[in-house]
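Researcher: Last one for today. Full complex below.
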Amino acid sequence: MIINIAPIGNVDKGLIKYIEDHLSRYYNFSTQELKLNLDIKKFYSEERRQYYSTQIIQEAAKFTGNVKDKVLILFEDDLFVPVFTYIFGEAQFNGKHAIVSLCRLHEEFYTGKTNQKLFFERTLKEVLHELGHTFNLKHCHDWDCLMHTSGGIEEVDIKGSGFCVECSKSIP
Amino acid sequence: MSHNSKILIVDDEAIVRNSLLHWFEEDDLDVETAASGDEALKKFEAGKYALVLTDMKMPGMGGIELLEKIKEIDPVCIVILITAFASVPSAIKALKIGAFDYVTKPVDPDELSNLVQKALNMRKLQTENLQLKAQIDSIIKPDNLIGESPQMKKIFDLVNTVAPTDTTVMIRGESGTGKELVAKAIHLNSKRKYFPIVTVNCGALAESILESELFGHEKGAFTGAHHKRKGKFEMAHSGSIFLDEVGTLSPKMQIELLRVIESKSFTRVGGNEVIESDFRVITATNESLENLVKEGGFREDLYYRLNVFSINIPPLRERKTDIQLLAYYFLNKFTSMMNKNIKKISDEALEFLINYEWPGNVRELENAIERAVVVGKSNEVQMDDLPFHRSQITSPDDNSLAAIEKQHILKVLAENDWNISRSAVKLQIDRVTLYNKINKYGLKEYQPQ
Ligand SMILES: [Zn+2]
Ligand SMILES: [Zn+2]
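Model: Here's the assembly. Have a good evening.
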């Protein structure tokens, strides 16, 4: 199973390496980087100063017809879908594409203090969570499981960093 | 879990309906939508929906009128209103006629998920209470809390006894014995199980940030506080808070902790609003708090608050009969994780595992098996796959000072997760000396490569 990682914006190279290492070490994933040159300006809302995530995924899908397995977009800016103030990420349920916004995973966003370790851990959790949706997983009731819903950063931080036994059955 | 958790979304805007539909579908909830109050009412029947989420302002029947009609048909149905900021006053009025709560547009995802979780969990607990839990004696265990030894059976009994009460529990045991798993078992067997158990590792946090970690902060509370954040005690509302390494708390934090445990309320850093939180306290320590109290390092009043019911987890070397079971559990876990075909542990390796002292306890065993699975080339774990040098296996008759020193250093390192500074303090030598001894004896911690 190949996870094609497509960074958009100024995504930390060390972060990508960290995610690649983890995905290939603990899961049966191989990773490769995917260059996606998307014109994302049109998905930017001036009023909200955020990008509309569903539209980015739809745009990406136009260019990934020949890409095998999953496409994971790492997005440096803030994302939204209408109705919600923001979202951490979005995935096509049982589909190919997932997107994770890094904006609100940075500790600087909340405290102004850099904490790279925490930032990497949070990103990994959200990446695996959104990938989980592409493998047909819904939210899980176990707070220790990655598939637990994460409404805010506090919930990202208190949930566990692995899938529960039940959910891991769906991960190849 | 999802039966009886059907949700009805009512909004005249298709884009709102669709975003919410997608959001709730990820929650594994059965979702239906209606584009108007009238359509919603046509679909509505008593007992069909656990929750209705409706817009306030819609052409035709508005949210409030819909709320009233729903409550007539099904008084226990939970109704949450979505309102534009300008209509908040009428939403507040709606609370009086039975709305569960309201959210303003655009909706904070954490607020909405909290509300919905709270509402549905309340319902689950209500139905559970009605069913009068038939059997209590089989406890729910976290997947990796394992053991069939008499010592572990006793622990499971204690968990079973204390879990359903709201008693404060202190878990004692050496590093790596699985104190957090026992904490989780207590939580999972309590009425708080649908809410989180929030872990705070008191030893890992600097005092300067511990306060905002525990109590949260408001936007602008300090330079760089661009957004408010809830603290661990707030997140533990309705659930449990697990304070690991509680003996490492500074005197100042001990006072704060005592205060919050007694009052069940606090303010966020930089805020005035008093936040109330209903949490159960579970603590863990690997040092003798009694000694700390005697030496003045730990408040006596706090000690009595925390040490209401205590559970001692024995070190792995005192329950050797569990080693094989645990080793195979971890073998299974890591082989399926790494897709390797290692099914067995060789007799030689197993004998070593059973006879080894395991200063780092179950965690050390887990690390050893992980390493063996990473490097293993055959379908059997061999002695050479384990992260131990043959020289490390001191025979019982090797009583040379060097052999004993080496074993002792290894034990202290394992107990302190190979933290050199902490280990050096425990050994009462300086870091450089410790490094030299590590090199001299060729001691190695297994490092994931
Ligand atoms: Zn999700
Ligand atoms: Zn799960």
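The longest strand of chain B covers residues 78-83. The pocket of zinc ion (ligand 2) is lined by residues A 140, 142, 145, 147, 163-164, 166-167 (CB under 6 Å).
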